[in-house]
Amino acid sequence: xxxxxxxxxxxxxxxxxxxxxxxxxxxxxxxxxxxxxxxxxxxxxxxxxxxxxxxxxxxxxxxxxxxxxxxxxxxxxxxxxxxxxxxxxxxxxxxxxxxxxxxxxxxxxxxxxxxxxxxxxxxxxxxxxxxxxxxxxxxxxxxxxxxxxxxxxxxxxxxxxxxxxxxxxxxxxxxxxxxxxxxxxxxxxxxxxxxxxxxxxxxxxxxxxxxxxxxxxxxxxxxxxxxxxxxxxxxxxxxxxxxxxxxxxxxxxxxxxxxxxxxxxxxxxxxxxxxxxxxxxxxxxxxxxxxxxxxxxxxxxxxxxxxxxxxxxxxxxxxxxxxxxxxxxxxxxxxxxxxxxxxxxxxxxxxxxxxxxxxxxxxxxxxxxxxxxxxxxxxxxxxxxxxxxxxxxxxxxxxxxxxxxxxxxxxxxxxxxxxxxxxxxxxxxxxxxxxxxxxxxxxxxxxxxxx
Amino acid sequence: xxxxxxxxxxxxxxxxxxxxxxxxxxxxxxxxxxxxxxxxxxxxxxxxxxxxxxxxxxxxxxxxxxxxxxxxxxxxxxxxxxxxxxxxxxxxxxxxxxxxxxxxxxxxxxxxxxxxxxxxxxxxxxxxxxxxxxxxxxxxxxxxxxxxxxxxxxxxxxxxxxxxxxxxxxxxxxxxxxxxxxxxxxxxxxxxxxxxxxxxxxxxxxxxxxxxxxxxxxxxxxxxxxxxxxxxxxxxxxxxxxxxxxxxxxxxxxxxxxxxxxxxxxxxxxxxxxxxxxxxxxxxxxxxxxxxxxxxxxxxxxxxxxxxxxxxxxxxxxxxxxxxxxxxxxxxxxxxxxxxxxxxxxxxxxxxxxxxxxxxxxxxxxxxxxxxxxxxxxxxxxxxxxxxxxxxxxxxxxxxxxxxxxxxxxxxxxxxxxxxxxxxxxxxxxxxxxxxxxxxxxxxxxxxxxx
Lengths: 451, 451
Prior knowledge:
Two copies of one chain form a homodimer. By secondary structure, the first copy, chain A, is of the alpha/beta class. Chain A has helices at residues 14-25, 66-74, 108-125, 139-143, 147-154, 158-172, 181-190, 194-198, 214-224, 265-268, 279-286, 304-307, 344-350, 354-369, 403-406, 432-450; strands spanning 3-4, 7-10, 30-33, 45-49, 52-55, 79-81, 87-92, 95-99, 207-209, 229-230, 235-241, 244-249, 252-256, 258-261, 272-274, 293-300, 310-316, 323-326, 335-342, 378-383, 417-419.
């Protein structure tokens, strides 16, 4: 028994839910096919007791993320500022320090070195056309090298290279050698600037959502209803016959006139297509790995660091977590430290047992915040690397020679098959805001096609 | 109704068939689960009339490929030398020339430049331990850069860089910026040297098999029998429960005590695993794209180039095919030119219709061999980029930061799940010989484990 709708949507994250919303509003019938038993994709809440939550996936909103903020506003979900009052902690070369403002207290030669490299990066980023990065004048040159190779050439100090690596880890959950220089430039431009991607106040980590970011997906799905959003419906095959497209799923067969695949290219590539996809689309999906991150949250009875004049943000060059935020609920109770384990550390600790991982993370929190950090009341982790229906987080990484060789295949439809998801958004690519934009774009295109 | 055997083998290419042969010989029961309706994987024959064939996939044997030659010998399949008599053709910068021996007649400064770069590459390759490339002293440095970045640094002329690109295309079906320098060094060492990989006589293209390379797989499968080798049995899921491993396939369910997955990492990653694979294995499969090649064969009533003193081998820097061989049957009738379309050209022409592709390839053959090449009696092509059960050819490409971050996950078993396939072979990785070696290794390991 095959169920039918005008449009099938693969994936019940923000891209898919947004596309469904817009198509329904335009009078189309829609079915959203979601593999997991929940909506939200890479955003998910974790209950921590007393009705409080922490976010285990994407969580922040920042200036310029207009579509995300508009959607949350529509749904009546409020934002509150990420805790950003007090000094930041830095742990480099075995020494701990703290600083206010945005300029860390480190060797001024290293500061000047990283400043020059970043200024150069920001200037180059502006030259990458967001709709078609492969058309940048120097696209070939930038796409033929890793960000690491570029950094080696344009920095003088190991300290500056370490800071660039920390930036890559924080923004991409990857190391500089995982990334094409062209991808780094595109991604920075897509979010405004590299600085904006790493900033808290004024940047991509500025605000949080009361009740957690996952509320956005949950409430949007609630409005669509369970007739529209089908959970446990992992799509294994998509076949096109005549003017019909059919999806085989774990929850039965569905057909429609069009299908919008919102899964990241990696996972879209794991669906079996009949007829086969065009060569460039197939090979693109082979070259779209996901980032490496384990998101950890340590819960304390109170945010003890605040009383010590610290904002809870920390960074360092050691093992465990190298990027930490205060992730306490709006009322500051309980105190929560969000500890990212990213890039090489996610790979290394991903091979260890959970106890070893937890110890490594808490050891790093102790380095930043002292012995009180050693004994949280609660501890939660999510290793996105082993999540079957994400493949990793935060998003897709393009290594060398992908944008220039396969860029157009990211969004070019294959017959009635359309592609969405944050990876396809020129603006805020990789972010929740980009996911929403991509869903809106795909819905408009499909609606127009259906006439 | 689940069918059982001691060992399940995923994939009926040379790796899987070899593993099955060895396990059966050791007294184990085995089932080979092959997705296609034929065995052979990346080797396949094409009938061209009168009982003659051409090879549309892997086809050559060379010195040092002892396991391949031994298997063919066991099966009574003879070899014959690749036609290598006469001058080679070169078409560079709009000019055609021909030459004997191995040194092309080009600008001596370019020759000296490419000679220095290649000598350096060969020396570095020897320093890469084949069992663990990530342990090379300079592994971090080599794996942080593309082959392209290295070539830019270590050549003085655009001509030398073009020749390195042609080498990369011929050996990897990829461009220098697709490849980690560490991967290029490993791969060269794995086959002996880069020179050996590109040579005909004395190298990896020295000999062919009478009746075509696919005979090896077909005859080996014939010996195993249809009870053992199941066609049309694409594996969609592998689950481990207790001491049993179960495979869901298009031809029903199978279980065993162990399973050997011989599909390349990309395709192994498209199987759904329960429980999830270890993080590093999962993420490795995301970073293992396949090469880009369209293999084309133009059939003429006779090998007209031979009468003109040409061996049928050609290379050039233009559109269409940049690497051509005489691929006529042993008796020289009919005449066949094998035209590889590789790397960027495979990407570009893969987006065109078959007629445009054919014209582009024949145009290039005319550049090399004159107007007679324009009108073949027969023409065959196989675009491996759209082959669902290969994903591309010749093999897996590692870009930067894969070997050093994920190398051990290439072969480390995940419980009862073992990995084989040519990509897992330290010796002749990427070649038919490596596939056989990997099957032998996996069979021995599994047999020992079963006690």
